[in-house]
């Protein structure tokens, strides 16, 4: 494995640990928007998100009763999805750029 591959693997492992373990210790205080809504008096207008009952809704995995495990799994799944989608986009753009560069080389 080359240097870039080792770096990406280390980055992915750190992201998984942060999402799966450290995220449990995040602040329980409300986020900025909720705090402003409370301070300005329009928190009553808050509505649940349309995907609240989805498998990863509300930063948890539905069907897992242990709060710590559920939140950790949601974080790990989120990192995995982000890595696959981001990596796929990067690979597609890189491949396309390589094909265009190759065509230019043949013309010039």
Automatic annotation (TrEMBL):
Superkingdom, natural source: Bacteria
InterPro entries found in the cross-reference section: PDGLE_dom
UniProt-listed Pfam families: PDGLE
Compartments, as annotated in UniProt: Cell membrane
Keyword Transport annotated: no
Residue ranges of the TM segments: 72-93
Domain named PDGLE: residues: 6-95
Entry protein name: Cobalt/nickel transport protein
A cellular-component GO term for this protein: plasma membrane
Keyword entries, A-Z: Cell membrane, Membrane, Transmembrane, Transmembrane helix
Main location: membrane
